[in-house]
Amino acid sequence: EGLKTTIIGRPNVGKSSLLNRLLGEEKAIVTDIEGTTRDIVEDYVNVRGVPLKLIDTAGIRETDDAVEKIGVERSRQAIKEADLILFVLDQSQALNPTDHDLMKLTQDENRILVLNKSDLETAVSLEEIKDLAGNSPVISTSMTNQSGIDDLEEAIAQLF
Ligand code: GDP
Ligand code: MG
């Protein structure tokens, strides 16, 4: 068993890359095609003594695709049941309504905001994010450069 840690965020922000990085193996499929993660991939990992059950969800968004819809519904369920939410944002893209919805949906949850793709030119200000974040830690990462993972692990360890 482990603390249920659900990775959320809209498609293509780097959720599966983050899962793989934390697990240290290529378990989830990473592609630049949206909607690749249709089901939920999960595995156990120990982060600085904190046992986590990591759950990579389908990107939450409105969709007409029946198969994807099942994945999305399971994502919402996973948020409710989570002990920790890792909310991944692509900092090279402006925030969109889905990001704002997810921010509201998770505001009362134990949450860390992961500002991924820090290797790319930034399109969101840290002030904007921190305004929305409330008390949630905000961690800047790049899965491409493998940076920020230590900071994220530290933030997780601090919460438990
Ligand atoms: P998901 O849909 O949220 O699970 O996103 P993926 O992990 O599948 O990644 C989507 C795309 O973004 C892939 O092409 C990744 O290689 C790329 N990607 C992930 N993290 C980063 C990052 O930190 N920087 C850059 N430049 N690309 C990234
Ligand atoms: Mg994915």
UniProtKB/TrEMBL annotation:
Binding-site positions, GTP: 12-17, 31-37, 56-59
Binding residues annotated for Mg(2+), in chain numbering: 16, 37
Section of the entire sequence shown: 223 to 382 of 462
Protein name in the entry: tRNA modification GTPase MnmE
Organism of this sequence: Atopococcus tabaci
Localization, UniProt: Cytoplasm
Stated family: Belongs to the TRAFAC class TrmE-Era-EngA-EngB-Septin-like GTPase superfamily. TrmE GTPase family.
Residues annotated for K(+) binding in this entry: 12, 31, 33, 36
Functional note: Exhibits a very high intrinsic GTPase hydrolysis rate. Involved in the addition of a carboxymethylaminomethyl (cmnm) group at the wobble position (U34) of certain tRNAs, forming tRNA-cmnm(5)s(2)U34.
The gene coding this protein: mnmE
The protein's assembly and partners: Homodimer. Heterotetramer of two MnmE and two MnmG subunits.
Domain (TrmE-type G) ranges: 2-160
